[in-house]
Amino acid sequence: MQRSDEAAYREYVTLRMDVLRRTAYLLCHDWHSADDLVATTLARLYDRWGRARQADHLDAYVRAMLVNAYLDERRRPWRREVSTDRLPDLAEVAPPAPGEHGDLLALVRALPKKRRAVLVLRFYLDHSVEETAEMLGISTGTVKSQTARGLETLRAAISNVQGVQS
Amino acid sequence: MKTEFDTAMGVVPASPIDVDRLIVRGRRRALVRRLAGAGAGGGAAAVAVGVAVAFGAGGAPGGGAQMVGERPSVAPPSAAPASAAPRPVPAGTGSTPPGEARSTEARLAPVVRDVVRQKAPGYTLSAGADGPAFKMRYLYDPGNDSYYGSANLHGPTGEGNVAINVGRRSTQFNPMNPCTGAETGTCSDTTEADGTHILRRVIHENGIADNYVIVDRPDGITIFIVAANQGGQTDSSPGRQAEPVLPFETLVSIALDPRLTV
Questions:
Q1: What average pLDDT does the segment A13-38 reach?
Q2: Do B143 and A19 touch (CB under 8 A)?
Q3: What is the ipTM, given to two decimal places?
Q4: What is the 3-state secondary structure (H, E, C) of chain B?
Q5: Nearest chain A Cα distance for residue B32, angstroms
């Protein structure tokens, strides 16, 4: 990578680090895992920076990398081989913080991983159904159904969620 | 719903991720790829060297995953001690009420030009890689709720690009500040008596030099301004002179001007 590209990469990461970390936290639910996920994504982004900068929507490109890195991580065999008597998604749940907002995070945490990814892309990062489908490599119908189920779960926790359409 | 999520997350802990270390690691991976492809038996060499580099740098095997929270192995010490205590920032967007982006762009562009001309007398402003001088554009995506513009400056200290982001700090515009203590080159951050927080950072690499300044003002405005010694991000040529076109004091002076607001 040329030094000018590195300068662009550095500026991009400096500006976007916070939202990437927050997004990763919503997916992983602990800061250590979230920072590992972001660091992994940014390392890959460095390797692909030339291609990434040519993307129509650089942020969408990077977010797709982040979310897919998260999903890939959970698909790896050694992850599946962890011995547990609880469902995989629930096995990683830490006790929720008390109160309404803690309940919100706890509810998101309890969602299956792909549904969680769909909700984060749709409602935290503002991506459309079509963009979300493309980023996750799934159909728009699947995005809609995952969104509807996810919102159903969250409705109990967010008073103003009725205004949100799937 | 973004705001509810941000509120639920609360204060985000300081980032342990060092951007410069990511870059150093990336360079090493690129070097390894080049070396591995250079000679006979490159395939086996690639595997062996790749693993050695990954572990040698403290990373994990399997595609460049990076451990976080470590000190860099190659970076010189920062000029200032780390002061990366997390600071709360408002959730949501703050830079632009709905429907006002276009009018704010139009208002801000001449103001930025005026402020730069006043704080950097003797310099001429001309179009840069992003179009007309400081034609401010509203950038909105989660994570970048700010106005951006750039220009080429030519004057007493030479020539180079100056780029600026103006926004209201929130979870949607939250540039990394303060220094992490692990940056390549020097980085220092200070808090003035009135609460203004100023980060100054120098980057010198292969003839390209940047002066970075991030200013958090008490009025909630955050300015990210970068001066280069060449044409900025899209220019790969070395600098036209050794130092960035504007020194730190000028950049800070621009960022502190209360006319730069949204």
A1: 92
A2: yes
A3: 0.76
A4: CHHHHHHHHCCCCCCCCCHHHHHHHHHHHHHHHHHHCCCCCHHHHHHHHHHHHHHHCCCCCCCCCCCCCCCCCCCCCCCCCCCCCCCCCCCCCCCCCCCCHHHHHHHHHHHHHHHHHHHCCCCEEECECCECCCCCEEECCCCCCEEEEEEEEEECCEEEEEEEEEEECECCECCCCCCCCCCCCCEEEEECCCCCEEEEEEEEECCEEEEEEEEECCCCEEEEEEEECCCCCCCCCCCCCCCCCCCHHHHHHHHHCCCCCC
A5: 12
